[in-house]
Amino acid sequence: MYNSWRRGAILNAEEEERLILQKDLLCLTDAEIISLFPKFIMSVRRKDCGEYKSDTIFSIITSIQKYYEINGKNISLLSDIKFNSIKNYVSNTMRQKVQKGIGLFKRQAQVIPKETETMLWENGFLGYGDPETLLHTIFWIIGINFGLRGGQEHRDLSMENFKLETADNREQVLVYRETVSKTYRGGLDHRNIEPHTARAFENRQQPDRCPVHIFNT
């Protein structure tokens, strides 16, 4: 990211600054870092030319610091007193982005209207008339009823994750129990965390759309 920014910045830089920008990141002196980094923080942009949110700016700086560490340079951009001007600039930039509302509102999944689901069933996009449609339907049933989050959780699924049980009212229930996910990895750190469990109950009103029936198909 820094190198991409550097190549663009060279085009509009004055002679003295151009000489600094031509240097590799690892070859910059402390004074050159102090001079250059505020401009980098101020002007670095995403590929779509939008501004980075505040926590991304922080991650960029810590990544550069890690790059220095990996290459044997003991530089602490956010804790060494000689780089206080960079620390203050990063802090002020992050504060300004928050005040401008950049990155405050995270994208959330939209609720799928009941009408959309009905349309998918009625037009044959969901069902079990052929293997491909059945595969789409299983994917839909799992997503709607069991709240799997990432693609990896879907890829890690096996029949061992599912079990048919009988509820107290004698209805059949399809039970999902996770094995591994982003929030449950097993091991020492997660020994006190219960794996995610979810249930899909029998749909006797619409048996053709019943998760238990489809699971048994």
UniProtKB/TrEMBL annotation:
Domain ZMYM2-like/QRICH1 C-terminal: 113-216
All copies of domain QRICH1-like, residue ranges: 15-95
Keywords, ordered alphabetically: Isopeptide bond, Phosphoprotein, Ubl conjugation
Presence of keyword Ubl conjugation: yes
The organism's place on the tree of life at top rank: Eukaryota
Pfam family, one: QRICH1
Name of protein: DUF3504 domain-containing protein
